[in-house]
Each structure stands twice: as structure tokens, then as C-alpha cells.
């Protein structure tokens, strides 16, 4: 009995040698070493071009408005499924990848496999098989009273939010003096199995006339106002207090004189969360362009003071008492076209990443000595762009001895200087990935660098073969042994470049060993 208890305790802490999690961690550790070793290269194995946006999710590339799905895991990308071209009424507005949580017991075998939840222009919510595109579930949200447009996670892989576009009256109705009080609709679902939690209105009469946007994240209803004000409410408390009646998908219901089936056409979903009074306010703050983030330990938030002159200045404050942390004002004093940006590190370490044109700072929160109530912002490590060959002298002397003075200085993000464009975190390999670009004339060159997430040490640099134009929109994904670059050119032309890990042929023997 003692041995069994000891074994179960070790297994609960992840020490059981035969546990799948232990094997997974060991495999990822080996993969990280292989990715970062000198003999490993990344080769461009596939390129495609499209007239419609290209999306990427966990080893799958989606083309033609999600009608074509390509697996990027094989040695050469291959088509998983190709559906007939859809009509404009079937156009997909947004999509989320849904994956089964470990240890869950689910009603259907198909629930254990990855699926794609998509939202169509006609307010249909579909759950598709990620491997075949087969429709697994189909829910009708609402009629013409609102247009649902956006999908997001409240809690990743647990609670999903479907948000409508902002309701706007036709011009004739506005001229007639008709007032529009309902601005947004939110429909909230538990996923796997898909179940309806409720639908609510965001009404000006409850939340005020200045509301510009709304969202739900981690159980918090976030309401943004035109003057930069951000207000937070407890969504669970709202749901419990104002839900008039619970409804189950597929069941018959009688609501406001209508009889139908929940989630079926033409009735859709009832708006069963009726907020009749302003909910208790959890927190409010004012920030430039409503930019507001919460994270760290203990809890802190990041804002920019609500004045244009403070653009690029970030304040890190305690959520408990709104006190500004010591060294809590972060300002890189950049002179650049594109602003620097800051966010809480997605590795759940509580650290903060601050990215400028030529500098990346990873900051940490720590207690102030002799004052446990105050927090200090300290530098954990920095990553600096390679600008050794950059000369930006204001005064130069020609060969004849003439002194020439420049009338202007280069911007910090001038294309001719190496500039950071993208920073991403690969959670499986615990690597921080950065994309730096240098463009001289029309020829731009980019490289993806992999850094140790703990100390910032450069472990690997991967050059991208295609030219990089800094005036285009770019996305770069580093996913274990895959690098994927999506580029959007003018006139809605999209390109996708796929790189896969290979061993240098001159060192094949060393790799096999």
C-alpha cells in the first residue's frame, strides 16, 4: 500500500516514467536540441499564391475561405480536403480551432479529434472535422436582427464567444430620429460538447452612450468607451443574476410568443440574458485607444496615459491598488514610423515583453527590498538588433576634405537598418522567436532567430529565402520543426512559404548518430 501511494504521488507530480506527458517532454527536449544544432537547416519545401486570405492553425493551411485545407506536417504539404467553391451567402467570416482537452469524457468519438468552428455570413455556426471538412454540428444563431462576425475564446478550448458587428440604423431611420439602443449581441457557448450558455445585448441604456466595443475574456466582460475608458464586469455574476431561462441546443422552446427549436432555423437562439440594471463595476481605467492588458504575478495591468503625446509610453500598475510599480514607466523614446509594443509574456511566467525597432526587453516583476507591498520592474534580459555596420553620422568629410552636414537623421525603424518586426513564443520548445528585417532598395532580407526563453541567448538563426517588402503585411509562424511565412501584397494577393527542418547533407552522418 505504501509503494502504491508513493507511485501515485510521483505520478501526480509528473514523475511516473511511463506517463505519456514524461515521454512527450523528453521528445520535445530532443527536438529542441535538433532544431538548434548547427547542422540543422530549414528548407523552403513549398510555396503557394492565392487571391484570398491564407490562414494557418496547428499544422494546417487554409485557402479559399477555408474551402481547401493543406497539411504542412508531411515532407511535402498535401491536400487534406478540397470543398466546392462556396457562394457569397456561405462565406466564412471567422474560425477557431477546437481541440479536445486531456482527460475529458465526451459523448461522441468525433469530439476527440480536432475540429474547426466557423461562422458564416448568414449567422450559421458550424463545427467541421479538421481532417475532412465534414459538418459535425450546425447551429443557427439569429435572424436579420443582427449580423454575427467574430469568434473568440473566453477561456481557451472551454468557453467560446460569438460577437455581432455593431448595430447601425439605416440612414433613413437615423434621419427620422429613430434611436438605436442595442449596440452588440454576444452569444456564449461551452465547447466539447457544444452547449449554449446564453445570449445578451449590450445596450446604451445600461452601459452608456459612449460604448464603442465589447468583449469577454477569462470570465470578465470588457466594455470600451470612446474617451479611452475601459470598464470590467464579472460575466459569471451577470449570467447568474440576469439569465431569465436556460436553454439546451436542439430542444423545443417557447419564447416571447414564438415556438421553435433552440439553434435551428428560423428561430435561432433566444436572447435569454436580459441585463436590466448596470452590473457592479469590478475595475475601470482610462488608456489611449483603450489599450489595456492584465497579467503578471501579483496581478498588474499595462496602460498608456490617455493623451496622444504619451503614445509609446507604458505604465505598469498594480491591479490591487492602482499603484505605479517602481520603474513602472517604460519608454524606449523611439523615433519611428511604427510604434513599439508591449505585452505580458505568454509563457505564464508573469514577465513582460517590450519590443522596439532595435531592442527587445524582457522584464520581470519582483518585490522591492524592505517593502513587500510594492513591486519593482527589473530587466531580465535584452535582445539587440545587429546594427554594427550602420553609420548614421550627422557630419561626414568627403575625399576632397569638404565637410557635409546631414539635414536629417535616420528613423529608428529605417528599412536600411536591421529592425525587429515580429516576436513570437514557441511554447512546446520554450523558445523565443524574433524576425528581423533589413531592406536596401527593393531587396529586403529577413531572418528568424531562436533565443533561449530563460536567458535570451541566441541559439539559431534561420534566413528566409524570399524577399521581404516592409510595406507589405506579414505573418510568421514557428511551430516546432516548421516555419511558415504568409505575405499580403497589394490588390489582395497572398503568398505562403513553408520551411521544414532538414539536416545538412554534408553532416548527415553526424545527425543520424
In helices, the fraction of residues equals under 10%
Number of helices, where a helix is a run of at least 4 consecutive DSSP H or I residues? 6
What is the distance, rounded to the nearest whole angstrom, between the alpha carbons of the first and last residues?
44 Å
- Identify the strand order in the major beta sheet: 1-36-35-34
**Biggest β-sheet strands, sense, barrel:** 4 strands, antiparallel
CATH-assigned fold name of the domain at 86-168 and 179-279: Lipocalin
What is the arithmetic mean of pLDDT? 88
Q: How many E strands?
A: 36
Structural class: mainly beta
Rg over C-alpha atoms, rounded to the nearest angstrom: 26 Å
Detailed description of the structure:
This protein is mainly beta and 513 residues long. The protein contains six helices and 36 strands. A four-stranded antiparallel β-sheet has the order 1-36-35-34. It has a four-stranded antiparallel β-sheet with strand order 2-3-4-5, with no helix packed on it. A four-stranded antiparallel β-sheet has the order 6-7-8-9, with no helix packed on it. The longest helix has 17 residues, at 20-36. Pfam families: DCAF17. This is DDB1-and CUL4-associated factor 17.
Amino acid at each position: 500500500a505504501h509503494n502504491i501511494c508513493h507511485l501515485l504521488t510521483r505520478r501526480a507530480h509528473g514523475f511516473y516514467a511511463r506517463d505519456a506527458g514524461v515521454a512527450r517532454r523528453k521528445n520535445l527536449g530532443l527536438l529542441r536540441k535538433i532544431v538548434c544544432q548547427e547542422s540543422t537547416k530549414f528548407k523552403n519545401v513549398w510555396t503557394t499564391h492565392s487571391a484570398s486570405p491564407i490562414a494557418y492553425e496547428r499544422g494546417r493551411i487554409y485557402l479559399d475561405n477555408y474551402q481547401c485545407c493543406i497539411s504542412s506536417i508531411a515532407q511535402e504539404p498535401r491536400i487534406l480536403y478540397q470543398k466546392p467553391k462556396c457562394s457569397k451567402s456561405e462565406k466564412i467570416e471567422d474560425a477557431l480551432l477546437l481541440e479536445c482537452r486531456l482527460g475529458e469524457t465526451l459523448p461522441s468519438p468525433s469530439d476527440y479529434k480536432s475540429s474547426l468552428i466557423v461562422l458564416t455570413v448568414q449567422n450559421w455556426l458550424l463545427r467541421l472535422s479538421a481532417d475532412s471538412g465534414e459538418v459535425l454540428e450546425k447551429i443557427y444563431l439569429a435572424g436579420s436582427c443582427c449580423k454575427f462576425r467574430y469568434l473568440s475564446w473566453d477561456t481557451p478550448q472551454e468557453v467560446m464567444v460569438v460577437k455581432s458587428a455593431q448595430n447601425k440604423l439605416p440612414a433613413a431611420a437615423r434621419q427620422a430620429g429613430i434611436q438605436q439602443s442595442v449596440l452588440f449581441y454576444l452569444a456564449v457557448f461551452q465547447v466539447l460538447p457544444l452547449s449554449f450558455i446564453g445570449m445578451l445585448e449590450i445596450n446604451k441604456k445600461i452601459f452608456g452612450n459612449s460604448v464603442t466595443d465589447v468583449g469577454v475574456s477569462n470570465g470578465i466582460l470588457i466594455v470600451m468607451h470612446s474617451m479611452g475608458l475601459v470598464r470590467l464586469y464579472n460575466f459569471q455574476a451577470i449570467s447568474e443574476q440576469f439569465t431569465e431561462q436556460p436553454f439546451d441546443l436542439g430542444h423545443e422552446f417557447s419564447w416571447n410568443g414564438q415556438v421553435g427549436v433552440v439553434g435551428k432555423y428560423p428561430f435561432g437562439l433566444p436572447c435569454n440574458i436580459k441585463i436590466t440594471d448596470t452590473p457592479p463595476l469590478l475595475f475601470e481605467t482610462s488608456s489611449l485607444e483603450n489599450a489595456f492588458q492584465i497579467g503578471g504575478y501579483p496581478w498588474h495591468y499595462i496602460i498608456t496615459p490617455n493623451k496622444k503625446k504619451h503614445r509609446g509610453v507604458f505604465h505598469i500598475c498594480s491591479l490591487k491598488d492602482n499603484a505605479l510599480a517602481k520603474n513602472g514607466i517604460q519608454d524606449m523614446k523611439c523615433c519611428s514610423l511604427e510604434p513599439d509594443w508591449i505585452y505580458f509574456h505568454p509563457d505564464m511566467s508573469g514577465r513582460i515583453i517590450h519590443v522596439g525597432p532595435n531592442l527587445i526587453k524582457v522584464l520581470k516583476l519582483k518585490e522591492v527590498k524592505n517593502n513587500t507591498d510594492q513591486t519593482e520592474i527589473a530587466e531580465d534580459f535584452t535582445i539587440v538588433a545587429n546594427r554594427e555596420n550602420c553609420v548614421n553620422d550627422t557630419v561626414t568629410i568627403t575625399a576632397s576634405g569638404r565637410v557635409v552636414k546631414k539635414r536629417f537623421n535616420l528613423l529608428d525603424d529605417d528599412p536600411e537598418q536591421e529592425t525587429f518586426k515580429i516576436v513570437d513564443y514557441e511554447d512546446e520548445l520554450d523558445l523565443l522567436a524574433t524576425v528581423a528585417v533589413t531592406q536596401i532598395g527593393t531587396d529586403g532580407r529577413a531572418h528568424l532567430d531562436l533565443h533561449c526563453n530563460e536567458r535570451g541567448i541566441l541559439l539559431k538563426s534561420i534566413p528566409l529565402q524570399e524577399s521581404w517588402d516592409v510595406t507589405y503585411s506579414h505573418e510568421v509562424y514557428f511551430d516546432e520543426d516548421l516555419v511558415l511565412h504568409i505575405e499580403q501584397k497589394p490588390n489582395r494577393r497572398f503568398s505562403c512559404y513553408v520551411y521544414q527542418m532538414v539536416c545538412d547533407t554534408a553532416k548527415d552522418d553526424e545527425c543520424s548518430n
